[in-house]
Amino acid sequence: MEKKVSEHVTWVGKVDWELKRFxxxxxxxxxxxxxxxxxIRDRKTVLVDTVWGPYDKEFVERLSEEIDLAxxxxxxxxxxxxxxSGALRELMRRIPGTPIYCTAKGKEILQGYWHEDxxxxxxxxxxxxxxxxxxxxxIEAPMLHWPDTMFSYLSGDGVLFSTDGFxxxxxxxxxxxxxxxxxxxxxxxxxxxxxxxxxxAQNVARKLKELEAMTLPIAVIAPSHGVLWRDEPKxxxxxxRAWAEGKPENRITILYDSMWGSTRAMxxxxxxxxxxxxxxxxxxxxxxxxxxxxxxxxxxFRSNAVLVGSPTVNYGCTYAIAGMLEMMxxxxxxxxxxxxxxxxxxxxxxxxQITEHLxxxxxxxxxxxIRVKWAPDGEARSACREYGKAFAEAVGDKKNEEEPTPExxxxxxxxxxxxxxxxxxxxxxxxxxxPAGTPFEELPDDWRCPICRMPKERFxxxxx
Length: 464
Prior knowledge:
With 464 residues, this protein is an alpha/beta fold. It has a 7-stranded mixed β-sheet with strand order 1-2-7-8-9-10-11. Strands 17, 18, 19, 20, 21 and 22 form a 6-stranded parallel β-sheet that branches. It has a 5-stranded mixed β-sheet with strand order 12-13-14-15-16, with no helix packed on it. Strand 12 and strand 13 form a beta hairpin.
């Protein structure tokens, strides 16, 4: 059943209460989700996005109960991923020839998924679709979080269709942010940002500035997942601005795995030491096997420091810790200090490997970590507590705190022609260990865009 969003817009999507895993098994969706599609009725009728493939026939059938499908004048695909375009083939069987508005990259991806030569109309920022009393304006938003992404803004009603931006995996019968539990909602919005959009935080910050400069009167922000923001929609814009900035809280996350309890005992003793050195810091222990991996990543995002521990197994770390390290690398965390710890028998390689992985992922390493052979006795536990104290002092040392980010010097930057990422020689690329002050010309030949992995040849000089 459709739900009213504004004078000209109704929601015609699908709430998926049963969804618990998404993107394969990469993302937990413990509170379900929704696939939001929107119908705009003016002198012209436009459908914005569809739903995920498992619900394609249900979606088209329900839509046909609300409206004569032949009356749809256009379909707008803000994003081509299959949780948005999954019902497109079923729909186009019923309305062949109907124009599909998307970016040039969107056309490429839709053709790559569905292998259909539909009536594509490619658009770019500033292009408009006149509907009658209202107008749709298209706003490209590449790498938020795919290269094809765009927003669409409906004048008159003031609705911003933001696709994955400002979304949450959150199932609700109520359509709007003021009809659900605020605490649950804001956590799911933050978790969504961390696990999906954080690698593109620079792009998020840039897009927020562009939206602000456009001075659009926004009454409703309508994302592709979760509830819509109508109760002070500026609140989620401000949250995104803060999250994109990436300034951490006074928190330390201790992430560990343990086979026989030795590394767990180390984690607990280190936590005791941290607490005794700094009673104001929030310390959280999380088991890489037993805790939800996406909740762990959200906790790390909030923290200004992380300790990662693993026993040594086959001369390395455990499967669970290795997986978490790779996810941490992919999310490109910033402004965080770290160290490693672990127990071992005859080979203590795990902490060293963890240290190297964290360093390569852009974490500032406090020290080379701590190891305990076999099970920690009273003396070893005491050493772990002292280590925790020292770690807390190093993290909380005023001299080592992050200095306010200075205004970037005016000069040359280099922009990726695919995703818009800007390489700034004054900053370098900490994800690859490229120090500040490295000219673009001196980057290694195999250096690639940290966001979309395009080679150096795809970058263009940008004068400021």
